[in-house]
Structure formats: C-alpha cells, structure tokens
C-alpha cells in the first residue's frame, strides 16, 4: 500500500493550527482557573497576565484559521469539519470580548458564555478529529501530516498556482 501524501500547504496550515490551538486552549484553562473558576479551579495558581498571552495567541490564530478555511474550501471541502467550526466560534467569540470583563469579575456577558462553550466544543472536536483520522487511515495517515517529504509540484512556489487551478476548475 502506498504511503499517504498530504500537500505541503495543508501540512503547514494544519501544523500551525495544531500548535496554536492547544496553546490557546491551555492558556484559556489557566485564565478560567485564575479569574473565573465557577466550576472548579486548578490546584495551583500561575501568576502573569494570561489575558494578554491568550489574546496574543488568538491574534496569531485568526489569520492561520482564515487561511486554513480558504485552503479547505479551494480544495473542494465545502463543509468544514467540526474542529474548524468550533475554532471559528472560539476565535469569533473571543474577538467580541473585552479583556477587562474577566479582570473586573464580569462573568455574565453572553459572549463570554459562548466563548466557554466554544472552548469545550473545540476540545471535543479535536478529540473527534484525531479519532476520525485514526479510523480512516490509522497511523500512516496521521503521520503523513508530519512528513517533511515534498513532491516535485508541491513546493511553496507552487502553492498559489495550485489554489488558482482548483478555484478555476470550479467556475
């Protein structure tokens, strides 16, 4: 059986998302534990301005998520999977929040509740996504996302032409 191959642009965007999402999720957990904690706190407290760190990760995640969604749509995946939907909800609701709400203990804003729901949905969606990848192709498919192998027509200078080619065929 041939080894699965994933396009390099997909691997790059997926990899950036796979680094930023857990960072955002974990920094959100620390924020929740330190400033909210209505449904439990972590057994330790970590100092620092986690709101700014969490927000900075969100700022980095926004363009990556947008490029990832555009890439997925251009490659024919009109219906994005649950992780992408949960990510859009998390980033979008985070953009609507004001960082002073948590600092001032204002925990009753509907956008904050939506952001917490997105935090939970994102965790469940990532678990489901990893499970689906392992069911569909097992470790070879999962490993293909981390491969550094490049095909001749899949180098960074070819990315724009690949996307244009797919978009052009859809018209």
Write the layout of secondary structure elements.
Layout: H1 8-36, H2 50-74, H3 82-96, H4 100-103, H5 110-144, H6 159-170
Helix pairs in contact: 1-2, 2-3, 3-5
Name the overall outline: elongated
Helix percentage range: over 70%
Number of alpha- plus pi-helical segments: 6
- Tell me the radius of gyration: 18 Å
N-C termini distance: 35 Å
Secondary structure tally: strands: 0
CATH architecture: Up-down Bundle
Main beta-sheet annotation: none
Structural class: mainly alpha
Are there runs of 5+ residues with pLDDT below 50, and where? Answer: none
Query: What's the order of the H and E elements?
Result: HHHHHH
Mean pLDDT: 85
Strand coverage percent: under 5%
CATH topology: Fumarate Reductase Cytochrome B subunit
Number of domains: 1
Q: What's the CATH C level? A: Mainly Alpha
List its salient traits.
single chain; mainly alpha; 171 residues; 0% strand; 6 helices; elongated; Fumarate Reductase Cytochrome B subunit
Give a written overview of the molecule.
The longest helix has 35 residues. The protein contains 6 helices and no strands. The chain has one domain: Fumarate Reductase Cytochrome B subunit (Up-down Bundle), CATH 1.20.950. The protein has 171 residues and is mostly helical. 17% of the residues are buried. The protein is elongated.
